Amino acid sequence: LYIQKGYKVIFPLINETLLIKDYIKTPNLEFVSINEDFPYKNYYGHNNIIETDDFVYLPLSTASRIKNQYSSVLEVKYDILNIDYSDWSEYFNFERNIERENKLYYDVLKLNDNDEYEFVNNVFGTQPNSTNKNVPINDNLKQVYMRYIEGYSLFDWCKVIENAKEISIVDTSINYVIEKLNLKTDKLKLTSRFTPPNWVDIKNLFKKKWVLQEK
């Protein structure tokens, strides 16, 4: 929206997520490291919207502290600007590195085109502060667990995810990627990262039909 208004958008990230710039390439959108110098860095970290004639600061990373804490983390980012979030997925686009996806699928994970497996992710949180959560698995299928592999990003798992016979994950950023993929399966199991389960961060966000695990 702000790019359409004529702004150049600077989006600071921690180094562990800076690789997103290799997959999301939008004109006038620049991802930068929070450890580097960048324009208006002195405003970064404030909890309030700051707006001048030629500059706007949006506190997206702390939006949940400003608005309703019972809304999803994504929803409040839109809510602080009074923007409808329901069509968020139409504006979330990324470029896929097919060569890297194939290398991960065939060479690293040793999968074949006719393999039947369950894609499993039981990890949430950004490295090095990630955490595990038990998720249900189908004992009748081979499991392919998502894990950190040097040289590969979350986006490079798209082929593995798309070709899975079943999917079982903890709610995390992968949900957003899966929403954009053409899956071969409709057997989707989702485990809450919270104990007891709490679905506040995902409610009303996804059109794909997830079976929510209540234990």
- Can you list the strand order of the major beta sheet? 8-5-9-10-11
Shape: globular
Task: Return the string of H and E elements.
Answer: EEEEHHHEEEEHEHEE
Residues in β-strands, percent: 15-25%
Helix coverage percent of residues?
Answer: 10-25%
Q: Give the tally of β-strands.
A: 11
Radius of gyration: 19 Å
Contiguous runs where pLDDT drops below 50 for at least 5 residues: none
Q: For the report, how would you describe the main beta sheet?
A: 5 strands, parallel
Mean pLDDT over the full residue set = 92
SS content category:
alpha/beta
Q: Treating each run of at least 4 consecutive H or I residues as one helix, how many helices? A: 5
Distance between the termini: 39 Å
Question: How would you explain this protein's 3D organization?
Answer:
This protein is of the alpha/beta class and 215 residues long. It is built from 5 helices and 11 strands; from the N terminus they run E-E-E-E-H-H-H-E-E-E-E-H-E-H-E-E. It has helices spanning 63-66, 73-79, 98-108, 158-162, 174-178; strands spanning 9-13, 29-33, 50-51, 56-57, 117-121, 123-124, 131-132, 142-145, 166-170, 188-191, 211-213. Strands 8-5-9-10-11 form a 5-stranded parallel sheet, with no helix packed on it. Strands 1-2 form a two-stranded parallel sheet. Strand 9, helix 5 and strand 10 (188-191) form a beta-alpha-beta unit. The protein starts with 8 loop residues before the first strand and ends with a strand. The model has no long low-confidence stretch (mean pLDDT 92).
